[in-house]
Design goal:
Elements (H helix, E strand, L loop, with lengths): L1 E5 L2 H15 L3 E6 L6 H11 L14 E4 L5 E5 L21 E5 L12 E9 L2 E9 L1 H9 L1
Parallel strand pairs: 2-5, 2-6, 4-5
Antiparallel strand pairs: 1-7, 3-4, 6-7
Helix pairs in contact: 1-2
The chain binds adenosine-5'-triphosphate and magnesium ion.
Length: about 150
C-alpha cells in the first residue's frame, strides 16, 4: 500500500500521467472513495494522459463509456448498480486490451478480475490522499515506482 498526498489538480494530472505510462496500454484501475472524492476527475486526467481528445464525463447514467484512442479507455461507474451486477453484459470489457477504470468497484466486485490497481481517494481537509494497493505482479511493479 502506498499513500500519495495530492493537493491540486496539477498533482492529480502528474499522478495520472505516471500511472498512464506505467500501464503500457493495458490494465485495470479500481477507484473508490466518497461522493465527490475525485474519481471522475482522476479518470479525466488519465484520459488526457492517454491522448484521448474526447471530453470524459461521468458515466453514471450510462454505466460504461468507451473512448477510442491509440489506447482505448473503458470507463465504468457502478454507482447505480449497487450490487445488481449479474448479467450486465459488459464483463467482456475486462478481456479487452486497453485501460479499464471502474468507479465504485465494490458494487461489481464479483465480475472484476482479481489483478488490478486499487486506488482509494480519501479527503483530508484540502488534500486528497490516494491510497494505492496493487494486486498482481504487474501492478506491484507499478506501485513500487509510484
Ligand atoms: N485533485 C483535485 N484538485 C481539486 N479539485 C478536485 C480534485 N479532484 C476532484 N476535484 C473536484 O471535486 C469535485 C468532485 O470530483 P469528482 O466528480 O471527480 O468526484 P467523484 O469521486 O467522481 O464523485 P462521484 O462519487 O459522485 O462519482 C469536482 O468539483 C472536482 O473539480
Ligand atoms: Mg464520479
Amino acid at each position: 500500500m502506498k499513500q500519495i498526498v495530492i493537493s491540486s489538480l496539477e498533482e492529480t494530472n502528474e499522478l495520472a500521467q505516471k500511472i498512464a505510462s506505467l500501464l503500457q496500454g493495458d490494465g485495470l484501475l479500481c477507484l473508490s472513495g466518497d461522493l465527490g472524492a475525485g474519481k471522475t476527475t482522476f479518470t479525466k486526467a488519465l484520459g488526457k494522459a492517454l491522448g484521448i481528445d474526447d471530453v470524459i464525463t461521468s458515466p453514471t447514467f450510462n454505466i460504461l463509456k468507451i473512448y477510442e484512442g491509440d489506447i482505448p479507455l473503458y470507463h465504468i461507474d457502478a454507482y447505480r448498480l449497487e450490487g445488481l451486477s449479474q448479467d450486465l453484459g459488459f464483463e467482456e470489457v475486462f478481456d479487452e486490451t486497453g485501460v479499464k477504470v471502474v468507479e465504485w468497484y465494490d458494487y461489481i466486485a464479483d465480475i472484476l478480475p482479481k489483478e488490478r490497481l486499487e486506488i482509494n481517494i480519501a479527503l483530508d481537509k484540502d488534500n486528497r490522499v490516494f491510497q494505492i494497493q496493487a494486486i498482481g505482479k504487474k501492478y506491484e511493479d507499478m506501485e513500487e515506482v509510484l
